[in-house]
Amino acid sequence: MEKIDKHMENRVWQRVQAREAAPEVQPRRDNLKPWILAAQENAAAYRSLELQLIGKQWDGLRRLEQESSRMVHSLRGISALRGETVKLTPLPTPREAPRRALEKCFHRSLRLWQELDSRCADPEWAVVFRSLARRAEDHCAQLTELIGRLDT
């Protein structure tokens, strides 16, 4: 029969007992308001651009505005379900040159996509964040196309 080394056994048990449990993934509970405001600013810019750019080639602006508004509502819904209230005031209609407005919308959409994509592993809201991230990603692609149309 094999002899057990008590000293070795004690060291092993000390290591086993000293291990900490793997930390649970905690949902990010930081404020969503900056991202809600970014989507709201984009929706207001799209409304303004709809009035400035007339023609069939600009029909996509209406859909971008509707989807941005839906994104605002979804993010506010998450906040409400978390017990946080987000008060928003209607934004004034921005009056900018179309190219500048589209560029700002692109950069806001890109930052919004990056933020939403970073939350796709959230244990509580992953399904919503994944859907919103895909929508923001699509907005970036559509905005680059619209910017390209301005130059033609």
Short recap of the structure:
This protein has about 150 residues and is an all-alpha fold.
What would your notes on this structure say?
The protein has 152 residues and is mainly α. Helices cover 66% and strands 0% of the residues. It contains 5 helices and no strands. Helix 2 packs antiparallel against helix 4 and helix 3 runs antiparallel to helix 5. The protein is elongated and about 90 Å long. The relative contact order is 0.14.
Round the Cα radius of gyration to an integer and report it. Answer: 24 Å
Give the helix proportion (percent range): 55-70%
Distance between the termini: 88 Å
Proportion of β residues?
A: under 5%
Largest sheet: none
Low-pLDDT stretches are: none
Shape: elongated
Reading the helices and strands in chain order gives HHHHH
Number of strands: 0
Average residue-wise pLDDT: 87
